[in-house]
Design goal:
The protein is an alpha+beta fold and 187 residues long. 46% of the residues lie in helices and 29% in strands. The protein is built from two helices and eight strands. The strands form two sheets. The protein has a four-stranded antiparallel sheet with strand order 1-8-5-6. Strands 2, 3, 4 and 7 form a four-stranded antiparallel sheet that branches. Helix 1 (2-30) packs antiparallel against helix 2 (37-93). The chain is globular, with a radius of gyration of 30 Å. The chain starts with a helix and ends with a strand.
């Protein structure tokens, strides 16, 4: 809704600026006592300059509006990531006596899974008894901006064996999506 209102405002301003330029052209041409080609050319040149200035003004406003919209989208993505990370952090804090095993976790290639993104998580249990794993997977865009965070659990992995699970984003993510193991705890 805000995007539509922004477009309407920019369009109105653009129409007003072009109308002003056309009026200036008419006044400059009509006020001349001479109807020589050079006087008409001079008036047309002034009108073209006014129209160009109006176009630059509209373009500048459109650029500012687009920048504001991009900033708003980035802020929303950042807020969603912060919320997801906080929830994952709370769940990880509930694990007592866990061991950091980030190096024992491998991620597959992220892919679309319905309307969300997903990645296969493989854990290797290097302990001498059956263990479970809690893995925080961060989803990022192509620029490395964090978009989402999820916690996946791989339960009861036998000593020396691997276990698998799938981490799915909490929401739809657009563009190229990359994943990273942020934290991994064996317990």
């Amino acid at each position: 809704m805000a995007r539509t209102s922004l477009k309407r405002t920019s369009l109105r301003k653009g129409v007003l600026l072009v109308a002003t330029a056309l009026c200036c052209t008419a006044l400059l041409t009509g006020c001349s006592d001479e109807d020589t080609p050079s006087s008409v050319s001079s008036a047309a040149s002034k009108a073209a300059s006014a129209a160009e200035s109006a176009a630059r003004s509209v373009a500048g406003e459109a650029t500012a509006a687009a920048s504001s919209l991009a900033s708003s989208v980035a802020s929303s993505a950042s807020d969603a990531y912060a919320s997801a990370t906080a929830e994952v952090g709370r769940e990880l804090d509930e694990i007592k006596g866990g061991t950091d095993v980030k190096d024992d976790v491998k991620l597959g290639t992220p892919a679309a899974d319905g309307d969300r993104s997903a990645v296969e998580v493989t854990v290797t249990n290097s302990a001498d008894s059956t263990k479970s794993f809690a893995v925080q997977v961060d989803f990022e865009d192509a620029s490395g901006n964090r978009l989402d965070a999820v916690l996946v659990t791989v339960s009861d992995v036998a000593a020396g064996k691997t276990g698998k699970a799938t981490a799915r984003s909490n929401r739809k993510l657009s563009g190229e999506v990359k994943t990273e193991v942020a934290k991994a705890v064996r317990y």
